[in-house]
Amino acid sequence: MPRSADDVSANLELIRSATEALNAHDLDACVGYIAPDFIIHLAELPQPLYGRETWRQNAEVMQLAFPDLAARIDGIVAAGDEVALRLTLTGTHAGEFLGRPATGRTVRYVSHEFYRIADGLIAEEWICSDTFSLLQQVS
Question: What is the pLDDT of residues 12-37, one digit of tens each?
């Protein structure tokens, strides 16, 4: 069944609101936008990850390493139950990240992210971040 323009607009607003909560470092609010059976696909991993708590743990790792991390939406499109984003993330490497001690450097990298929305919540994500560039900046 085709989605209405209202459904697509609501999906766009959900992702924008979740991004705002992430930028405010409000992980509780972020988790509130995520479905209980959430599925996480990271480009670097061969198998998906599952659940809100797993998402929170990954977000906490990023917040500890880059306490001022901010995501700017450079592009966003939606169709049906899917939303696609092009983001630029910036922050200061102020804590350990993947075994690399803090450098104090400002980092900037791009992420392409895709979301599936179900029942007004984020049900699934595919994250394709430029991790190679990020790791070069903190090495």
Answer: 999 999 999 999 999 999 999 999 99
